[in-house]
Design brief:
The chain is mostly beta strands. It has one domain: Beta Barrel (Acetoacetate decarboxylase-like). Helix content is 6%, strand content 49%. The strands form 2 sheets. Strands 1, 2, 3, 4, 5, 6, 7, 8, 9, 12 and 13 form an 11-stranded mixed β-sheet that branches. The model has no long low-confidence stretch (mean pLDDT 96).
Length: 272
């Protein structure tokens, strides 16, 4: 019987084929965060027990585009950039668990398989999507400057249907990037049992946050945001009622695991 290695599938004799290297993982990039208020009941319906709505501003939501470059501790991915560069869009709200407030990812799309599976390991409900966001420039005319008046566009689509589109215009510098995504993340890690009997073989409530965070240039501004219907998405249930503010920020952070808060363990199944 052979010995197999690898952090994630496929596990092989060498581990080299694993879709993901072992943590820690390092991230550097830019984030466009657009905060608004929706119907608090639409957020509450996405919070499984024992989670509760946030005490303050329970209808606050952030839609975030992120243009990432990531790598493991070997840094090998940086010399093979197809394994390090990706974009994602995630929809975040806040919630309460045992009296403490957290940020929670409600929906998320990403454009690389390794980033999707890495998110599943962390509890992010990632799906594949087609994602674009305007990049700032320092020279030439083919992009906005990071200064008041700079205008950006951002979109996400999945299964050939556009789900979200937005525009953002910088009005000033900022010392923060909003409040909705400013707390440790609280996620569920679920895997249905192979028996397909409605039970889960993995059912965990986990929290996590990064370390060695570095914040670069940060800006605030105004924005427009549109959400669209799709046969496979429910975003329009989170339709904006009031726009709060938008932010563009450079950020770097590392991640090396989280904490399991609750684990529902199924009884062992034995063949009859």
């Amino acid at each position: 019987m052979g010995h197999v290695e690898g952090f994630m599938f496929p596990r092989t004799a060498t581990g080299r084929s694993s879709l993901l290297p072992s943590p820690p993982w390092h991230y550097s990039g830019a984030m466009l965060t657009l905060e608004y208020r929706t119907d608090p009941a639409a957020v509450a319906e996405l919070l499984p027990a024992p989670l509760e709505p946030a005490d303050d501003d329970p209808g606050a939501v952030a839609v975030i585009w992120a243009d990432w470059q990531s790598c493991s501790n070997s840094f090998d991915e940086l010399l093979d950039p197809i394994r390090s560069q990706y974009l994602e869009v995630f929809v975040v709200a806040r919630c309460k668990y045992r009296g403490r407030h957290f940020s929670r990812c409600l929906y998320i799309w990403v454009d690389r398989d390794y980033a999707m599976v890495r998110g599943h390991h962390q509890g992010y409900p990632k799906k594949l999507g087609s994602i674009f966001m305007t990049r700032p420039v320092e020279v030439g005319k083919a992009g906005p400057r990071l200064a008041p008046g700079g205008r950006f566009g951002a979109t996400v689509a999945a299964y050939d249907r556009r789900l979200i589109e937005a525009t953002f215009e910088i009005t000033d510098t900022s010392d923060h990037a909003g409040f909705v995504n400013a707390l440790p993340m609280l996620h569920n890690r679920w895997m249905p049992a192979i028996e397909s009997d409605g039970s889960d073989s993995l059912d965990e409530l986990v929290t996590m946050s990064g370390y060695d965070a570095e914040i670069g240039r940060s800006f605030t501004g105004t924005f427009d945001l549109s959400l669209f219907d799709s046969p496979t998405e429910e975003l329009t249930r989170l339709a904006p009622r009031e726009l709060i503010a938008g932010y563009w920020r450079e950020v770097g952070v590392s991640w090396n695991g989280g904490t399991t808060l609750e684990r529902n363990v199924l009884p062992a199944m034995h063949p009859s």
